[in-house]
Input
Amino acid sequence: MSNNLPTVSIDHINKSFGDFTAVSDLSLAVYPGRVYGLLGPNGAGKTTTIRMIVNITAPDSGRIEVFGRQITAELQDRIGYLPEERGLYRKMKVGDQLKFFAALKNIDGREAGQRVDRWLARLKLTEWKNRKSSELSKGMQQKVQFITAIIHEPDLLILDEPFSGLDPVNVEILKEIILEQRAAGKTIILSTHQMELAEKICDDICLINNSRKVLEGSIREVKRAFSRNAVALRLEGGDDVLANRSLVSKIERHSDGVEVLLAAGTDAQALLQRLIAAGAKIERFEMIEPSLNNIFIEKVSEAE
Amino acid sequence: MKKFFAVVKREYVQRVRSRMFILITVLGPVVISFFGVAPALIFSIKAGGPIRIAVVDQTGKLYQSVYESVVDNAGTPKSTSEQMNANALNKNANERFQQIGEQQEGSFELEEVRPEGRSLDQIKRALDQRVLAKELDGYLILPANLLQDGKPEYFGRNTGDVFTRKFLQEALSRAVRQQRLAEAHIDARIVQELSQPVQLDGMRVSAGGGGVRDSGEGFALVFGAGFIMYLTILMYGQMILGAVIEEKETRIAEILFSSVKPFTLMMGKLVGVSLVALTQLAIWGLAFAAFAVYGAGVLAARGVPLHIPNVPLVNFVYFGLFFLLGYFIYSTIYALIGSMVTTAQEGGQLSMPVVLLPLIGFYLFLPVSRSPDSSFAFWVSMFPFFSPMTMLTRIVTQTPPLWQIVLSLLLGFGTVALLTWSAARIYRVGMLMAGKKATIPEVMRWVRQA
Output
C-alpha cells in the first residue's frame, strides 16, 4: 500500500436507525491515487457508510476523517459524489443544471461554463446542452449526473453504482475517466455489485455484509489468499467426476467451459487424474485465481 | 454565501421563466376582476318580464298609495342615504347579496281587482286560476282593517322569491304609513324632513390636540393588507411546498446535501420563491398604480375632486413589515410541511389546516378593532400566527406603545427563524428516510438529533 496519509480514514464507526443496525464497528482507510471498491450485497451498509463520509449523516459513534480532518462543510467542496439514487431537475436545461451544481461547489461564472462544455464534449452530450433533462434517456441522465460529481475536480470522488444502466461504450468512457483521475493522484471510492468491473478497476476492496466488514485488502492480496484451489476447465464428458462433492466443492458453468473450486483435501493433480480416468476429453485445464464474484459469493454465503 | 445565492437564483430563474408564471401574471388580474364583476353581472340579469301582481283592496282607499309605493320605488333602492353612509367594507356578504337582490327587483305591474259583488273566496278562486294560467305572478289581499292591525296576504306562484316578498312588505308599509299620516292630518313631507338621519364623523384624538378626521381609510388599508396577505399566502405557500418537495420527488436532495447545508438550502428556497412572489405582485401593483394614476388624471380633468387617504406615513412602513412577517410565517409553515412529506399530494392534505390559520387572524380583526387596548388584543397581537393582522389593526385604531410593536415583530421573525431551522433539520433526516411517512414523535426526534 501507499505510504501517503489516507484520504479517508474510518475508525470504528457505528450507525443505526432505530432497531436497525446499518453499520457496525467499521474501520477502513482509503489512500490517494487508488480506486477503493466498496462491495457488498444490497442493504449491507455501503450507502450509509458513503453518506457518513460525505457528511450527510453523522455516525452514532466512532470517527471519520477526510483529508486528515474531521469532515466540515468546507471540505465537502473537495468531494464529488454520485449517489445511487439518481435525480436531476426535470424541467431544467442540462447546461444550466450543471452550472447550478458547479456553483454549489463554489465554481461559478465563466470557469463553470467552460468546464460544463468540456465535460459535455467528453461524454458526447454537447448537442443536449440546451435540452431539458426530462428529454434525456436514462443513460444520458446518468452521464449528466456523473459530470455533476466531477465538475469541481474533487480530490475525493465517490461513485455509488456508477455503471448501472450504461451501455458498454459508456462504461468504457467512464472507466477511462476514473483511471485518469487515479493517475492524477485523486482518490476514488467505488461502490458496485458488478464484480467483473470492480475486479478490473479497483486497487483495494472492502467487502461489507450485514453491516460488518468481512474482507479488506488490495485485490492482489485478496485473490492470492483465495487462489489455493480454483481450476478453469474446458472439456467433454467427466460430468460425474465434477459432480463428486468430495473432489469439487463448487462448480460454475460458463458458455466457454467451467470453473471449479476444489474441495478441501483435494489437489488439482488428483482431479486431473480422475477426469482422464473417466475418459473425459480435456481441452483446457488451468489453475486460476478465483474471480471476485466467486469470492464475494463464497464470503457472503459463508456468513449465512 | 455563494451557494445560498446559487440556490436563490435557481429557484427564481426557473420559476419566473416558466410558462405558468407568465400566464398567471398576465391572466391573474383578468381572472380576479372577472370574479369581482361576475356576481353583480349575474344578479343583474332580469330573467323574465315584470312581475304581475293583482291587488284586492278591501279597504277601498289604499290601492293608489300602494301603486305609487310599488311602481315608483321599484328599481330605486330604498333609503339611499343609509346606504351611502354605510362603509362598503363593513358590509358582509349577506347584506351585499340582499342589496344586489333589491337592485334586481325590476319592474312590477299592478292591477286592481274590484270585488264587484263577489265574495272573497270567489275572487281568490278566480285569481288562483289566473296565477296558475300564468297570467299573474301573484296577488295581494289587503284586509279592510289593514290600517288598524290587519295583516295583508300574498299569494304567489313563487313565494320562494324572498326579494319580491320583502319589497312588497316594505312598499305596503310605506303606503299604510302614508295613509295613516294623511288620516291624522300630518304632512308626509314634513315627516320626511324631520326624520332625516344624522351623520357621525369619526375624529381621532391626536397628541397635537384637536381631532383628526378619520373616515375609515386606515381600516380600509388594514383590510386590504390582510386580504392581499391572505391571497399571497394561498398562492405562494403552495409554491414553497412544491419547491421543498421537488428535490425529494426527483431524488436530487442527496447531491444537494453533499454540497450545501440544509439551512442554506431551505433559506435559499424561501427567499427565491419570495422573490418570485414579489416580482409578480410588483408587476400587478405597478399595473394597478398606472391604471389608478391614469384614472385619477381622467377624473381630475373632469373636475371630480380627489380624496387622498388620510393615513400617517409610518403606518405604511408598518404595513410593509407586518405584511412580510405574515408572509414569511406562513411560508415557513409550508416549508415545514414540505420537509415532512414525500409527495406533493401528501403535502396538499397536510396543508389544509394551515389555510385556516390566517383566516382566524383575519376575523380577529373585528374584536381587536372594537377594543384595541384590551389584554385580549395585546396577547393576540403578540402571537406570531395572528400578529400580522391583529397588530396592524391595533396600530390603525389606537396605536400601541412602540415596544409592543417591536416585541411583536421580534417574536414573529424569531418564529420564522425557528421554523426554518426545524424545517431544515427535518428535511435532511426525512430525506434519508425516504418512502416512509413520518409520525409526529419521529419528527420531533429528528429535530433534536439530526
User: Anything to note?
Assistant: The CA atoms of residues 178 and 188 of chain B lie 7 Å apart. Chain B has a mean pLDDT of 78. The first strand of chain B starts at residue 51 and ends at 57.
